[in-house]
């Protein structure tokens, strides 16, 4: 089993329900044995800003799937929940990113691990710091330290606790 960390976000439809359905589907499909889920954070969109606010969470768990198989599993969940391709950074019903997969480093056209923008995304790091503050990231900084640095300008607010 490999330790994995995921980031989930949504800004269309019943946002909280989208997150809950995605976590439930990942567990139900056996893709990830979920061990922890952060509180839900409301965040401003990045890139294309003329869209609704996002809800974001981080999840930690274990998987028996190989990295590319895990990617296929999360994409399957996105499709099952109704995500359709749009433009880069556009609105979405659900987005699931693999942040880390053990200590694996992968760089293929369809999967890069650790996630290439992990270190710059407060909307990812701040929820992750809630469930894995002492996790050391690839550059040697802990998630807690990075979250403190990013929190000063991130414009992220804790929306509500994850219950269930």
Structural summary, described in words:
With 164 residues, the chain is an alpha+beta fold. The protein has a single domain, classed as 7,8-Dihydro-6-hydroxymethylpterin-pyrophosphokinase HPPK (Alpha-Beta Plaits, 2-Layer Sandwich), CATH 3.30.70.560. It is 29% helix and 27% strand. It contains 4 helices and 8 strands. The chain has helices spanning 15-28, 67-80, 122-131, 143-151, and strands spanning 2-10, 33-37, 40-43, 54-63, 95-101, 106-107, 112-113, 156-160. Strands 1, 2, 3, 4, 5 and 8 form a 6-stranded antiparallel β-sheet that branches. Helix 3 packs across helix 4 (143-151).
CATH superfamily membership: 7,8-Dihydro-6-hydroxymethylpterin-pyrophosphokinase HPPK
Main sheet record:
6 strands, antiparallel
Q: Please state the average pLDDT score.
A: 93
Low-pLDDT regions? none
User: Might you state the CATH topology name?
Assistant: Alpha-Beta Plaits
**Structure class:** alpha+beta
Number of domains: 1
Distance between the termini: 23 Å
Order of helices and strands: EHEEEHEEEHHE
Structure summary, number of beta strands: 8
* Total of helices: 4
Strand-residue fraction? 25-35%
What does the overall shape look like?
A: globular
Q: Indicate the radius of gyration in whole angstroms.
A: 15 Å
The percent of residues in helical segments reads 25-40%
Indicate the CATH architecture.
2-Layer Sandwich
What is the CATH class designation?
Alpha Beta
Write the layout of secondary structure elements.
Layout: E1 2-10, H1 15-28, E2 33-37, E3 40-43, E4 54-63, H2 67-80, E5 95-101, E6 106-107, E7 112-113, H3 122-131, H4 143-151, E8 156-160
Antiparallel strand pairs: 1-4, 1-5, 2-4, 3-4, 3-8, 6-7
Helix pairs in contact: 3-4
């Amino acid at each position: 089993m490999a330790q994995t960390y995921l980031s989930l976000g949504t800004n269309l439809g019943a946002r909280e329900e989208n997150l809950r359905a995605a976590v439930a589907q990942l567990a139900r499909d056996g893709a990830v044995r979920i061990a922890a889920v952060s509180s839900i954070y409301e965040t401003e969109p990045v890139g294309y800003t003329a869209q609704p606010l996002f809800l974001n969470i981080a999840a930690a768990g274990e998987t028996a799937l190989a990295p590319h198989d895990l990617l296929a599993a999360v994409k399957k969940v996105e499709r099952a929940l109704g995500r359709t391709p749009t433009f880069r950074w556009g609105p979405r019903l659900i987005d699931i990113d693999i942040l880390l997969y053990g200590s694996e480093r992968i760089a293929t056209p369809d999967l890069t691990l650790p996630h290439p923008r992990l270190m710059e995304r407060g909307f990812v790091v701040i929820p992750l710091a809630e469930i894995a503050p002492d996790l050391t990231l690839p550059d040697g900084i802990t998630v807690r330290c990075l979250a403190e640095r990013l929190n000063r300008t991130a414009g992220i607010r804790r929306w509500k606790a994850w219950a269930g």
